Every structure is written in C-alpha cells, then in structure tokens.
Amino acid sequence: MGLDVLEAGHYDAAASHLTAAHVDLVCIDVGLPNKSGYELCEHIRGSLRLAELPILMTSEHGNSGDMAQAENAGGNAFLHKPFSMRQLAQCIESLFAVTPRIPLSFELQLRASRALVIPVPIGAWSSPSRVPSSNAAVNA
Question: CATH topology for 11-117+131-139?
C-alpha cells in the first residue's frame, strides 16, 4: 500500500505521535496498556484538529459489545484479530474512500461555532425585537 507507519505501544506514545506528526489514519487496539483504545479514540474525537481523522479499531475479542463500544467512542471501522493483510488493506482503502471522511460531531461543531463568534453592531438588526440579549449567544 505504500504507507508510512508510526508505532506506539501505549496511550501516551500514541497521543504524542498525534501531536507531533501529520497522521492520515489511526489504527487502535482496544486493549492498549495504561488507558484503553476507546479512551484514545475519544481523545482524538475531542480534538478539533484530529476530529475528522479516520479511526480503525481492532480487538482480539471482536464481540458485539466491543464493536458497539468502538462505535460509541468514535471509531469508523472495526477489525477482529487475527486479520489478514488483505483485510487490513481493504479496510484502510475503504476508510480513505469516504469523502468527507467523517463529519464533525454536533458537540464539536458547537464548540467551533462558539469560538468563531463575531459581534454584530445593533444597527445591523432589522428591529429592536430581533436584537439578541447578551446571553443569547452563550445559551444558544
């Protein structure tokens, strides 16, 4: 496939790679030591810079509970171990084929929209009844 791979044996090393390097896809084993792969997935989804990053979750258990938890954490795909290189390549290709990769969650969109609030002069509103209160932007 011609991919460069960065390896991380635990949560902190993975989080460090994500901060320092440009990454196009993350493959996470749910059984990471010290913090779970689910927690790393949630960390990625909570970051505005990384939120749209495709995430492939893997587990040797592969039961429906693991799959549901991976999806709830924000994973885009799930592979049961052991898997072949062909299965891995097909999964990666399908993740790269999705456009846009994944939409930002509503919570992330809301956080981003609050960060980009631009004050509007009161004269720009058509009538006094449409002027928002000072708390309207905070409560929206």
Answer: Rossmann fold (3.40.50)
d(Cα 102, Cα 83) in Å, to the nearest integer? 24
Give 47-60 pLDDT, tens digit per residue.
888 888 899 999 98
CA nearest 81: which of 32, 29, 39?
29
Q: Which residues lie closer than 8 Å to 137 by C-beta, 6 or more apart?
A: 114, 117
Measured CA to CA, the distance from residue 8 to residue 139 in angstroms comes to: 41
Kindly report the pTM of this predicted structure: 0.68
For residues 31, 39, 34 and 8, what is the CA-based torsion angle, rounded to 10 degrees? 70
3-class secondary-structure state, position 127? coil
Whole-number CA gyration radius for the chain: 20
Burial of 108 (0-12, 13-18, 19+ CB in 10 A): middle
